[in-house]
Design a protein that fits this description.
The protein is an all-alpha fold and 238 residues long. The chain contains eight helices and no strands. Helices cover 66% and strands 0% of the residues. The protein is globular.
Length: 238
């Protein structure tokens, strides 16, 4: 549409648009890397459960594009200021088991390491995979400060998120990520891929504890919120 208002878009709007485009490109590249790892390691393209896994992921990505605010997408495209050093280390370490689970699942399909799993296990894994990704998306949609790395976003007026799934646990995005990390290998039919997935779970539990401590110490209002929402990842457990 032609701009008839005579007002030039602000640098912030232009920058946000650029960052959103960057994030879209990042996500597309990540998606194709995941697909490439699965099919190259499996040595075939006619792997139905891998296609189901990818189709589910693609559906969630499409929903994210439709529901997430541009400012959040822009934030997740970059490494901002004040990122905690420990989170850079943990995020870097976590890349290995995340990719490792995909590699092992693909090799498992090719070499037959795991026994053939029942259809119900595949479908149950795929369902939990979708629900976990859905919870992750719900957390992002409910928290405009949901960044890829832990930092206090002072330049954006960082506030406590307490709506949506944050009414039940303090870190619902991590809960969703853990759920779909464990469910993914089952959807793909690989018991051996649960080993690197388990490492991912351990690293995310550590990250949750460290992030929660950081927020209580540095984010105004978070301690009060933590007093109201007692659990970090699983209601009634932790």
């Amino acid at each position: 549409m032609e701009n008839t208002s005579g007002i030039t878009p602000s640098p912030l709007d232009t920058n946000t648009s650029r960052l959103v485009t960057r994030r879209m490109i990042q996500v597309v590249i990540q998606f194709f890397i995941i697909a490439l790892i699965l099919f190259v390691c499996a040595g075939r393209l006619d792997w139905g459960w891998a296609w189901a896994y990818l189709a589910t992921s693609l559906g969630i990505l499409a929903i994210n594009v439709a529901i997430l605010p541009p400012e959040l997408i822009a934030e997740r495209s970059r490494v901002g200021e004040n990122v905690k050093r420990w989170d850079k280390v943990l995020s870097g370490l976590n890349l290995f088991p995340i990719l490792g689970a995909l590699i092992v699942a693909g090799l498992d399909d090719r070499l037959g390491w795991s026994p053939s799993l029942a259809l119900a296990i595949h479908l149950g894994g795929l369902a939990v995979f979708a629900l976990g990704q859905g919870l992750f998306s719900w957390a992002m949609a409910s928290n405009k400060f949901f960044s890829t790395l832990v930092r206090i976003q002072q330049e954006r007026g960082h506030e406590v998120a307490a709506s949506g799934p944050y009414r039940f646990v303090r870190h619902p995005g991590y809960a969703g990520f853990i759920a779909y990390s464990v469910a993914g290998p089952l959807a793909l039919g690989s018991l051996w891929a649960l080993i690197p997935a388990g490492i991912t779970v351990v690293l995310f539990v550590i990250r949750t504890a460290l992030e929660d401590r950081t927020l209580q110490a540095e984010l105004e209002g978070y301690s009060g919120y933590a007093g109201q929402v007692r659990y970090r990842l699983i209601p009634g457990v932790w």
